[in-house]
Write a structure and sequence with these properties.
Blueprint (H helix, E strand, L loop, with lengths): L2 H70 L1 H8 L6 H19 L8 H22 L8 H13 L5 H15 L2
Length: about 180
Amino acid sequence: MTGDQFFQVLLALLPSVVVFLTAFYLLRQFLGSRSRETNHLMMAEAKREDRKHTLPLRLQAYERLTLFLERIAPGALVFRVHKNNMTARMFHTELLATVREEFEHNVTQQIYVSERAWQQVKMAKEETLRIINIAAEGIPEGANGTALSQRVFETASKLSHLPTQQAILALKEEVRKLF
């Protein structure tokens, strides 16, 4: 094959090579974008599927935390925990233990709620313990549980908003945002 023949073959193949490379490039671009689109759609579908499964868990967490807050509200707590023949000291100890146990029972729910909501729940628990401790101050040794009950009610009534009520409002606000 002479140089002239080689040049003619090269000239004949050059358009084919250019067409092949152009087609290859375009096909690769098309398939790449399709792949990214498919990936994006699959991720969106996975998120929808995940949301379908986690939304009920999140709602359940908000429900459980609301129930927790209702149960540790000073009035409900006093009525539920008070037993006849309890001294004020025994009643005080039992109130504190009940709040802490209820909290520990619901501590895993923080996974499903926002940090802000969880902080509100923790603050409500701490403030409720504070109300109980303030009410117990100055109760004479040997006083009965009813005296402490009255002091808890008096202490709580001095507040414009109970901490548990504020936390419940924060939880409700977050649940509304879910829909």
